[in-house]
Write a structure and sequence with these properties.
4 strands, mainly alpha, two-stranded antiparallel sheet, single chain, 65% helix
């Protein structure tokens, strides 16, 4: 192999590894703005005794992070990859209302199953309401967190099931591209409180699950909505440390229940994801999906 092959492709583009590293670095810079922006807004509006600071902060942070991530994705896809934007599987979301509704319901429902099982086992307890949680405050709080998680879901799905999966899938079989995407997605949460190697396993299962949604619908939006429903419900119920209006306790064994912000590392959720993935594979199998195929630059699976 020539040294040039490690740097550029035959058509003069940067080699795959450098395109991916460059994109993930730029994406990391985009999402790293969330914490300082949110903290800055909350401190500035701290004297307001309402959920307004969090609502305003979430709206601005969502807009900034989504806009910059979208901009980075467009620049890399058009000028670094030199490929069609269609390959990102990101049509206007207004064209996919059923995907959005279906994904949101599915993500919330799956997380509610987790909460119900943990509650029945005594691993999850709702002690009561947090102090000062009037109806307007609860409504504002839930709205603010919904907006925040919209940003998280859009950016992460655009980056991983959009850019990364597409670039890997143009080079490698789909199954391998999805596997690598899942590992990278899992390891990107390395700094999350409660992270463990089991979280990476869960991330791989999620990657296959959400990639099936992308391949079946030719768009990332069902996966975005599933991601949103899962995160928002976990935060709202108090299954993870966050802004839930409930005062909750989680006392389940970390091996099964996970811990901190990385509850997906618990075996209970891993089993649930495995069941959901198995069901989706059975359904998708009827569509003739070939996991050894690759992705065309326009995002369509192509069997060699």
């Amino acid at each position: 192999m020539r040294v040039r092959d490690l740097l550029v492709t035959n058509d003069g583009r940067p080699a795959l590894v450098w395109r991916v590293i460059g994109y993930l670095f730029a994406f990391g810079l985009c999402v790293s703005m969330r914490a300082p922006l949110t903290e800055g807004f909350e401190k500035t509006l701290a004297d307001l005794q309402s959920p307004l600071p969090l609502l305003l902060a979430s709206t601005v942070v969502m807009a900034v992070v989504v806009t910059t991530t979208l901009g980075v994705s467009i620049v890399f896809r058009r000028f670094v990859d030199r490929r069609a934007w269609k390959g990102m599987a990101c049509p206007p979301p207004g064209q996919r209302p059923r995907d959005l509704l279906g994904g949101l319901v599915m993500g919330s429902a799956m997380l509610l199953v987790v909460a119900a099982v943990e509650y029945s086992l005594g691993w999850f307890r709702v002690v009561g309401w947090k102090e000062g949680m009037s109806a307007p405050v609860v409504a504002g709080l839930l709205a603010a967190r919904l907006i925040y998680f919209v940003g998280t879901a859009v950016c992460e799905e655009l980056a991983y099931r959009g850019y990364l999966l597409q670039n890997l899938g143009e080079r490698y079989p789909i199954w391998l591209a999805v596997l690598i995407t899942g590992v990278v997605f899992g390891l990107s949460h390395f700094m999350a409180n409660g992270f463990s190697w089991r979280f990476v396993i869960a991330a791989v299962l999620v990657s296959f699950f959400l990639s099936i949604m992308r391949l079946a619908t030719r768009a990332i939006w069902m996966g975005v909505a599933w991601h949103l429903g899962w995160d928002w419900t976990a935060d709202g119920l108090g299954l993870v440390p966050g802004y839930s209006p409930f005062q909750t306790e989680r006392v389940g064994p970390p091996l099964w229940a996970g811990q901190g912000l990385a509850i997906e590392g618990g075996l209970l959720i891993i089993v649930l994801l495995a069941v959901a993935l198995s069901a989706s594979l059975l359904v998708f199998r009827g569509a003739g999906m070939d996991w050894t195929a690759k992705l065309a630059p326009q995002g369509e699976p192509v069997t060699a």
